[in-house]
Specification:
It is a single chain. The chain is α+β, with helices and mostly antiparallel strands. The chain folds into three domains: about 15-75, 3-Layer(aba) Sandwich (MutS, DNA mismatch repair protein, domain I); about 170-225, 5' to 3' exonuclease, C-terminal subdomain (DNA polymerase, domain 1, Orthogonal Bundle), CATH 1.10.150; about 240-405, DNA polymerase, Y-family, little finger domain (Dna Ligase, domain 1). The protein is built from 17 helices and 14 strands. The strands form four sheets. The chain has a five-stranded mixed β-sheet. Strands 9-13-11-12 form a four-stranded antiparallel β-sheet. The protein is globular. The chain starts with a strand and ends with a helix.
């Protein structure tokens, strides 16, 4: 049976959720991300803001230069996660496999649940209508024979769009004279490289396919295949246990030279990493430290460990790694664990046979949190659940930066 894929992409997801909950924001240039006087980027923005040239991932100060009269808001991630769970409940009813790309985007394999292309199209329209009725949001949906074409289809009529690409021939006919960037995975740098060789359109890729492969190697073969409508990728559901690492990082609103402050923040990041690892039942056997300096130069340091990778161990190892880096003004700090494996599959260590080890670690952690409370006047131990959420973590870190004693 020929594969049938539906691609669902929410329209300006974060902004749409905010407009749904506050109708007075509708029709206005709404920009979700940092505030204009802060460091950061645009997470997403309404289509009205896009008319000013504002785009996702744009530096917030550039966004403000282009759209000074826009409405700027911090994201409310918990609210978006609730909406995302509602979306997944809808998607899961129609697909044998769902591959999420983000909170607001996914591929759905409906090959066997639909049975044929016409029924898949009916399902896609139903998903659009249910999304509006049950979640209060619009989405753009594409239906096609492969993932790449389904994504192209969903983008074809945005926002609130619907489009079908039944066959590879239909796909090639649609994109043949478009710029090479229409092809999935061809970004700005790859497109510029192809342009420099006179390869500007999908048709050029087809006629100069040997040259594309010579220029780009193995990746070039993939791009050539796409130009001919060939894509055999399967829809692969996300499994947390397949992740290679778990990490958490924060960017400061002003650079800091205070490395004692950084050590305090490493404790919070270590706790966040442990919480996420425990949520997925994963264990790490290595710790990483990431630093981005004031000049945007980033470094990463890592160390393998043999014992239980709990918050205290992550914290101690990351502090040790921090002691070994150049002491310059820091813009961003991050902590992670790697070499992940399910808890039940890892090899036992000596710590597992020491019965009072868990209690000992709790005492150490309690002492570390008490020291933070004394220094900043915040009840860290009583509010860890809130700190695990990104918005609260960043607010807490900024408070710590301004009130370090």
């Amino acid at each position: 049976m020929n594969r049938i894929i539906i691609h669902v992409d929410m329209d300006a997801f974060y902004a749409s959720v905010e407009m749904r909950d506050d109708p007075s924001l509708r029709g206005k240039p709404l920009i979700i991300g940092s505030m204009p006087n802060e460091r950061g980027v645009v997470s997403t923005c309404s289509y009205e803001a896009r008319k000013y040239g504002v785009r996702s991932a744009m530096n917030i100060k550039e966004a403000y230069r282009r759209c000074p009269n826009g409405i700027y808001m911090h994201p409310h991630f918990e609210k978006y996660k609730i909406a995302s769970r509602q979306l997944h409940q809808i998607w899961d009813e129609y697909a044998t496999a769902v591959e999420p790309i983000a909170l607001d985007e996914a591929y759905l394999d409906v090959t066997y649940t639909a049975g044929d292309f016409n029924e898949a199209c009916r399902m896609a329209r139903t998903i659009k209508q249910r999304t509006l009725n049950e979640v209060g949001l619009t989405c753009s949906v594409g239906v096609s024979y492969c993932k790449t074409a389904a994504k192209t289809a969903s983008e074809e009529k945005k926002p609130d769009g619907y489009f079908e690409i039944p066959t590879a021939k239909d796909y090639v006919n649609l994109i043949i004279d478009r710029d090479v960037r229409v092809l999935y995975t061809v970004g700005a740098a790859t497109a510029e490289k192809l342009h420099s060789f006179g390869i500007r359109t999908v048709r050029d890729i087809q006629t100069k396919h040997d040259e594309v492969i010579r220029i780009l190697g193995k990746r070039g073969q993939w791009i050539v295949n796409l130009a001919f409508g060939i894509d055999n990728q399967k829809v692969t559901p996300y499994r947390p246990q397949d992740a290679k690492s778990i990490s958490r990082e924060v960017t400061f609103q002003a650079d800091t030279n205070n490395y004692e402050l950084l050590k305090d923040i490493l404790l919070l990041l270590a706790l966040c990493v442990q919480d996420r690892a425990e949520h997925y039942g994963l264990h790490g056997s290595g710790v990483t430290l990431k630093i981005t300096y004031h000049d945007m130069k980033s470094i990463t340091r890592s160390r393998s460990i043999s014992s239980e990778c709990d918050a205290v161990k992550i914290y101690n190892e990351s502090v040790s790694l921090l002691d070994g880096v150049d002491k310059r003004a820091v813009r961003l700090v991050g902590v992670g664990i790697y070499n992940l494996s399910p808890e039940q599959n890892r090899m036992p260590t000596l710590d597992d046979y020491i019965t009072d080890n868990d209690e000992s670690q709790k005492k150490i952690l309690s002492g570390l949190l008490d020291a933070l409370q004394a220094r900043y006047g915040l009840d860290f131990a009583g509010h860890l659940e809130q700190i695990y959420h990104g918005e609260t973590l960043h607010k807490t870190v900024e408070y710590m930066r301004k009130h370090f004693i």
